[in-house]
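Dear Dr. K.,

Following up on our conversation at the group meeting, I've run the structure prediction for Amino acid ABC transporter permease from Salinisphaera aquimarina. I'm pasting the input sequence below exactly as I used it, so you can double-check it against your construct before we proceed with anything downstream. Let me know if the numbering doesn't match what you have in your notebook.
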Amino acid sequence: MSGDSDRARTPRKRLSPRRRARRIRIAQYVVLGLLVVAAGWGADWSTIGHTFFDPGLIGGTIAHGLWRALWNTIAYSAGGFLIGLVAGTLLALMRLSDVAPYRWLATIYIEFFRGLPALVVFMAFSLLPLAFPGLAMPWPPYGTVWAALGIVGSAYMAETIRAGILAVPTGQIEAARSLGMSAGQALRKVTLPQAFRIMIPPLTNELIMLIKDSSLVFIVGLSAANFDLTKFGRAAANTHVNITPLVVAGLGYLLITLPLSILVRRMEAAAARGR
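The predicted structure tokens came back this morning:
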């Protein structure tokens, strides 16, 4: 009896945090594996292969217009990003200005366009010729797409750029002013170069977001030669009554965004090592 009571009073040895974390991780792997097996067991692979990965349609989609749509997507996104970067820099400087009306205007613009879905902005641009007869954007349809993407991107980039400017140590700005630089010279030669080095990873993320937002350009009306990846994939999928072309178009987006994502991770790792 005394031996049993001694064993009952002896506390059970607790697992160390490392062993507990290992067991939790193993349990997560087991659960994930079971879910994958269950999904694979219940899937109709013949239907999936025919509907989403038809080999004949994959080859036909790649050969008939995919590369042009890929190029159009890159062109739309790059132009919108450049416009957004310039406008976002201006808006960030206005937010940091000592002139109150500049701050108010920049704040209203940023909050307004950050609150609107990108779809609404594209719809507004598609209706501009109705509201202003005779109005025509240059280099159609690129000018319209660049302006819409630039407006959407600038509202987000402005806050990123403002944060980057504020991250520059004030001591360096004061040192530049003590050397005789004007406020504008210190901004151009000291503040902005350092701020943009800090902002490269988040700005690259903004570019990735704009690439995905470029899938909305179908709203402005495009000819077949100006199709982006999404519009091209949808048109081909409707023609063949099969989802395979849309899947191929989605892989086209990955060809653009995956290298950018890898680049962002490497830049962030390099920045962390530098600190």
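Two things stood out to me. The mean pLDDT is 86. The longest helix spans residues 55-95.

Best regards,
J.T.
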